[in-house]
Amino acid sequence: MEAKRSKKAKAPRFFLGLVFVMLTLYAVSLLLPFVWGLMASLKSIDEFRLNILGIPKEWAFSNYPFVFSQLKMPVTYANGETAYYTVPYLLINSLIYVLGCAFLTTLVPCLMAYLNVKFKYRLNKVIYTIVLVTMILPIVGSLPSEIKVLKNLRLYDSIIGILIMRSHFLGFYFLIFYAGFRTMPKEFAEAAYADGCSEWSLMVKIAFPLVRNTFFIVMLIRGIEFWNDYQAPMLYIPSWPTLATGIFWMSQTNLNALSRVPMRLAASYMLMVPVLVLFVVFQNKLIGNLSMGGIKE
Length: 297
Fold this sequence. Notes:
The chain is mostly helical and 297 residues long.
């Protein structure tokens, strides 16, 4: 009996050790490219040719100021004129695009989920089903029609147009808010009605504060997605290039030293700095558990 117990005890330890080794190797596989890219971004162009994998002999910290000052993305307007956007202008466009889209793509699903939970009507299940279907079925070939509609509505190449496009409730985050509002105790609404609270006050003062942490985290995640997005600004708002679009242009250009690998890597790490700062500052909210309060009986 003792031998069988010892074998059973060894089996879980073996699997736990195997899982630990696999996860360690996976973490190293993610960390090595990051470290290599950081070291390569701090090498001079000549040293990178001779020493691709090694540690820099002379740390070229000047690569980052060079990229910041020399990155000038050309944008050709419909009238044929060409303007050059530097990093500060690209950064301003990025902030407008990221903050606006992140807020609306979080607010609209939150509102729709609350209305779908609070008020019972026949289209509730239809809306819920539409969200599920759009998540399961891939939508392919819609890009030309989207651009055509935007041009017909005179919203193409407009910040307002891209914000309207992002203002939809479809997606996984609708389900997150839907589940959050479903768990809201009915006693909250009953106590609010007893105090003469209106539907608007109930939503703003009671329901939304309960999902405040969820709202913030979803907005933060969506903001990171839009910060790294270069395709949508390039396609829908070509006259409003973002920093991600500028770095994508830099990866395709063959002009001067910006076309070299160390400079491209330096630009990529510059784009990654705000994301790392956000993660360090809000890591407790991102990693911590989300919970909703209730009524003590």
